[in-house]
Request: fold
Amino acid sequence: MSKPLITEADLHAHVDAQGPLARGTEIEAHLAAHPEDAARVQAYSAQKRALQEFFNPMLDEPLPEALSQLASRPTAATAHQDKPFLRRWSLQRIAASVVLTLVSGAAGWLAHGQYQQAERMAQITPLARQAAVAHVVYSPDVRRPVEISAEHEDQLVTWLSKRLGTPVRAPKLGAQGFELVGGRLLPGNSGPVAQFMYQDASGQRLTLYVSTEIAANHDTAFRFSREGQINVFYWIDGKYGYALSAGIDKGALARVASAVYDQLDRN
Amino acid sequence: MASITSGTPPNHKLLVDSHAILTELPRLRRYARAMLGDRAAADDLVQDTLEKAWSRVNQWRAGSDLRAWLFSIMHNLRVDQLRRPGLSTSPMDDDDLEVPTRATQTDRLEVRDLESALARLPEEQREVLLLVALEELSYGQVASVLGIPAGTVMSRLSRGRERLRLILDGQQPSIPLRVVR
Reply:
């Protein structure tokens, strides 16, 4: 550090050319004898130049209209506060209305059917309907359709098996033109359920919903259900309930469902 | 409502006039942009500053420094912004993060990293550094704009410059940690 003769403040004053001129010689002498201080002074001067070079171009930019208008004294009609408040408020309102639209859209979708059969509301949601809702919620998501992607299929399967408390796996549907995208854990009627998502070359998505909440231990044949635009094939195999959902036609979905059934049956 | 004819330097002894304010606008924008690192947020802050300035134009002392007055309003608005309830964070003690290292820097500064390095300075050091380096205010003006003693200006300037140097040299890779409560 510098000797008491030249203080830290002197060094900065030197960088900023703010000290008395008479001090200049003393400081130069100090810097010649103290290379570390000289290096710092040099670095600080370089910083200052770099900051100016970086930010000075803003001085030549045209001013936004909103700002140049405010250089004039506001009239009573545009008294301070009102203007920015309204602008921000309207942005917030737009954001809020988007959220409301989304929420009410989702609520409407869910309400559809539920209110048609009020007595069903007290009961558990049927497997096909749960699967269709999960499909509708997650499959349109371009950026985050799954929690764990197919790149980490081992982790995905291990994790879902652990959470469901029983082995689950993702069938291979490459022969049917669908590749695994990944999967996620979801809440079912009383506990965790799993969803695997697949996608074909055209981007068409298909989800396999796997529930282990099946109380009645009786197998069923394939059943078909249509929920809105979504076709669902579902079946019960021991304690497992499976539902395959997609917005593709019934015949194509049936072929995929057979492939899934064949693979999972060989557990 | 410009009352000064073009070509005439702004006459501070009379009134705050729009021509004088217009002259200061680019500087206010540059400083806000450097402080906040975000163009839109910076223009919002400048706008708030102008509105506040007009709302308290009677408090402006004729003959005093208009630029310093505007920067001071902006500083106070910024302080209010930071005080607004959000996620409660408390900065860790500055000295915890000082890394004693030998100077090995070259004259080369990576300008691309300048903004992110600047963003890593504590707010109070950044504002002093920018008022001195960009606005080229005197230390006394900085003290009056920020409402802090001259000694504090110097210590913040010294710490800010040294920290920026270390960051730009890649000698202080740690991001200033904040404790979330």
